[in-house]
Amino acid sequence: MAEVLYVEPVVRFCAVISQDDQVRSEAIERLSQHWGVITNQSAPLPFVAGGYYAASMGDGLRKVLVALGDPLDAGSMADWKLWTNDVELEFAKKYPQQPRPLNLDPGYITQAKLVLATTKDRDHRVYLRDGIFGEITLTYTAKRWIHHRWTYPDYRTDEVAKFATECRNSLRAFLKRSTGFRQRDAN
After folding, report:
1. Which long-range contacts (CB under 8 A, 24 or more apart) does 124-128 make?
2. Which contiguous run of DSSP H or E holds residue 90?
């Protein structure tokens, strides 16, 4: 029988996308109230999606990456996406002048990968539950972040790699302080 190994906790993060600075700020505050203290935050980054979101969100979109709370178990990532979908609906009601004023994309970072939650099924995504899939968007190999054929253009940037590295380093420091760094389950 295969031995179940210790599963390291992850750094939870969320991409907060909007053309409106106020909407992004309010969304980050809402995330912090629900998920905990902001531990890392990127500057606003250009969000390039080849026009996919233009009709519903407008042009000039910016994305802020925010890591929140202590490292935790990744097993509840589907819950994170379902909750952020509800928050998006709240913002759509609060800001009705635009069909979709806010896009929230939660995910997590481990020592080896950056994973995003999504509602869209594709050949490279794994079904989690309740209509939510997980995608390994970046992989940490040979001391750098590597993208894949499916990685969105906005995740292929140096700024995202810098954010992911800072989160990865924080996670490694957390694991070294705890007894969880490369440990097998005691049971």
Report:
1. 124/148, 124/150, 128/77, 128/78
2. helix 77-94
Extract the tokens encoding 2. Answer: 């295969």
Measured in Å, how far apart are the chain's first and last C-alpha atoms? 14
pLDDT tens figures, 55-68: 788 888 999 999 99
Q: Do residues 141 and 42 make contact, with C-beta atoms less than 8 angstroms apart?
A: no
- The single-letter code of the amino acid at 99 is P
d(CA 91, CA 102): 7
Q: What is the pLDDT of residues 32-52, one digit of tens each?
A: 999 999 999 999 999 877 667
Give how far the C-alpha of residue 45 lies from the chain's centroid of Cα atoms, to the nearest Å.
15
Within 13 Å and on the Cβ side, how many CA atoms surround 172? Answer: 8
pLDDT of residue 131 exceeding 70, the answer is yes
Tens digits of residue pLDDT in 59-93: 889 999 999 999 999 999 999 999 999 999 999 99
Distance (Å, rounded) from C-alpha 44 to C-alpha 64? Answer: 5
Average pLDDT of span 130-154: 96
- What is the b/e burial string over 27-36, where b = at least 16 CB atoms within 10 angstroms of the residue's CB? bbebbeeebe
How many other CB atoms are there within 10 angstroms of residue 13's CB atom? 30
